[in-house]
Design brief:
Elements lengths: L2 H13 L5 E10 L11 E2 L1 E15 L3 E7 L5 E3 L3 E2 L13 H11 L6 E8 L9 H16 L12 H16 L6 H8 L4 E6 L5 E5 L7 E11 L3 H19 L12 H6 L6 H22 L7 H13 L6 H12 L4 E5 L4 E9 L3 H14 L6 E5 L6 E2 L2
Parallel strand pairs: 4-7
Antiparallel strand pairs: 1-3, 1-14, 2-8, 3-7, 4-5, 4-6, 8-9, 10-12, 10-13, 11-12
Helix pairs in contact: 2-3, 2-4, 3-5, 4-5, 8-9, 10-11
The protein binds alpha-D-galactopyranose.
The site of alpha-D-galactopyranose has 10 residues, from helix 5.
C-alpha cells in the first residue's frame, strides 16, 4: 500500500470521515554539492522512493490538529494549536515542523485550521531529509486545502514554496539550513538529478539512469547521529559568511577556482579550509553535471571521492561511521563514495557497479561488525518523483 493510501486510511480511522485530499513528498540524497547551498552555490540532489504523506481536511475552529502514525499503527497527537496564535517558540519538539509551516503560510493568507494525519517511510535521523519531506508535504496540504496548487504557471511556484518552507525551518524551528532539501523534495522528477543554482534559482533536470550504465547508487544509512550536528552546522555557516565578508564578496560562490590561492592568502588560518571546501565543491558539482549531461555516469566517482575527502579534512563534518562506510565501499569496488547531507552521522552514498553490489554490501557490514558499530542499513536509491497531490 502506498504511503498516500495509508495516510487516507489512517485519517478515516482517526477522524471518522474522509480527508479532503492527500499530499506527499519524498526524502532525498544529494549526489554532490555539500554545504554549498548557503554559500549561494550549486547542488545536485535526487528524490528517494520514500515519502511522507499527509491526509488533510479543513477545520472550522481554526485549530491545527496534527497526528503522526508510526509503522506500528500507534497514533501520536500533538497538542492542538490555533493557527492564529502560532509564533516562533510557541511549539517545540516534532510538532514545531508542521506548526512552522502553518505559521509561515499564515503570512501568505492561508489561515484556516486543519486536521492532518501523517505517515511515511523516509528513514528518520538518517540525513535523508525526512523532516523536509514532512514540511513540504504539509505545505502542499495546507495550500491545497486553501485551493492553491503551486506550479510554474499560476499561483506560488514550487521555488517560492521551497523558500517558505526554508523560512519556517530557519525562523520557527530555529535551524539555519539552506535551500537544498526543500527544493529537492518539491522539484525533483523521476529518473533525473536536479541541478540547482541556489543564487539564481535556475533548475535543470539532468537525466540520471545509473542502471543503464550497470551502476547503482547505494545508500548506507550509518544510523549514527552525533549530538554536535546542530551547533556545528551553524558554526560552519557563520565561518563561511565571515570569510565572504573578509574577502569582500556577497557569498563564497563568488570566489573563482583560479582565485582560490589568492583568497586563501587573505584569510585567517581557521577560515581557509572552509573556503577551500566550498570553492572546490562547487567546481566538482559543475564537473559532475557535465559528465551526466554527456551520459558519462561512471566518470563521476572521482569527484564523489574528492568531495568526501574535502568534507572530512577541510570542512570537518564527517565522522568515523561515515569514513568507514566510504572506505569499505571504495575498497570493495565502488567507483566513488561520499557522505551526503549535513554530516556528523546520517548517510553515505556509493556509486557501485551492479556486479560489485554483493561485495560492497558485505565489506561495509564487515567493517562495521569488526568495530562493533551498530549495523548500518543499505539500500539502492532510484531517482524518484518529487512532491505532489496523491488524492
Ligand atoms: C543539510 C541542510 C542543507 C544543506 C546540507 C549540506 O541537509 O538542510 O540545507 O546545507 O545539510 O549540504
Amino acid at each position: 500500500m502506498s504511503q498516500a493510501d495509508r495516510a487516507a486510511e489512517q485519517f478515516q480511522r482517526l477522524h471518522e470521515r474522509a480527508p479532503s485530499g492527500v499530499w506527499s513528498a519524498p526524502g532525498r540524497v544529494n549526489l554532490i554539492g555539500e554545504h554549498t547551498d548557503y554559500n549561494d552555490g550549486f547542488v545536485l540532489p535526487f528524490a528517494l522512493p520514500y515519502r511522507i504523506a499527509v491526509a488533510a481536511a479543513p477545520r472550522a475552529d481554526g485549530l491545527l490538529v496534527v497526528t503522526t502514525v508510526g509503522d506500528d499503527g500507534v497514533p501520536q497527537r500533538a497538542d492542538p494549536v490555533a493557527v492564529a496564535d502560532l509564533e516562533p517558540g510557541s511549539v517545540t519538539g516534532w510538532a514545531a515542523f508542521p506548526s512552522g509551516v502553518a505559521w509561515v503560510l499564515r503570512g501568505q493568507g492561508v489561515t484556516g485550521g486543519a486536521d492532518l494525519v501523517i505517515v511515511g517511510d523516509v528513514p528518520a535521523g538518517a540525513g535523508l531529509s525526512s523532516s523536509h519531506a514532512l514540511q513540504c508535504a504539509i505545505a502542499l496540504a495546507l495550500l491545497g486545502l486553501a485551493g492553491v496548487a503551486p506550479d510554474e504557471h499560476a499561483g506560488p511556484t514550487l521555488a517560492e514554496v521551497a523558500r517558505w518552507v526554508q523560512r519556517s525551518e530557519n525562523d520557527f524551528v530555529g535551524a539555519p539550513t539552506g535551500l537544498l532539501d526543500q527544493t529537492a523534495s518539491l522539484c525533483c522528477v523521476e529518473g533525473h538529478v536536479l541541478f540547482l543554482d541556489v543564487r539564481s534559482g535556475v533548475r535543470e533536470l539532468v537525466p540520471f539512469d545509473p542502471a543503464a550504465a550497470d551502476l547503482e547508487v547505494l545508500v548506507i544509512d550509518t544510523r549514527a547521529r552525533h549530538s554536535l550536528a546542530d551547533s556545528a552546522y551553524g558554526e560552519r555557516r557563520k565561518g563561511c559568511e565571515e570569510a565572504a565578508r573578509l574577502l569582500g564578496v556577497p557569498a563564497l560562490r563568488d570566489v573563482p577556482l583560479d582565485g582560490l590561492a589568492d583568497a586563501l592568502n587573505r584569510l585567517p588560518d581557521a577560515l581557509r579550509p572552509l573556503v577551500r571546501h566550498v570553492v572546490t565543491e562547487n567546481d566538482r558539482v559543475l564537473r559532475t553535471v557535465a559528465a551526466l549531461r554527456a551520459g558519462r555516469v561512471a566518470d563521476i566517482g572521482d569527484d564523489m571521492a574528492a568531495s568526501h575527502a574535502s568534507l572530512r579534512a577541510d570542512y570537518q563534518v564527517s565522522c568515523l561511521e561515515l569514513d568507514i562506510a566510504v572506505d569499505a565501499a571504495v575498497g570493495a569496488g565502488a567507483l566513488g563514495a561520499r557522505m551526503t547531507g549535513g554530516g556528523f552521522g546520517g548517510s553515505a552514498i556509493a556509486l557501485v557497479p551492479t556486479g560489485a553490489h554483493g561485495d560492497v554490501r558485505a565489506a561495509v557490514l564487515a567493517a562495521y561488525a569488526e568495530r562493533s558499530l551498530t549495523t548500518p542499513r543499505l539500500f539502492a536509491a532510484v531517482p524518484s518523483a518529487g512532491a505532489g497531490r496523491d488524492h
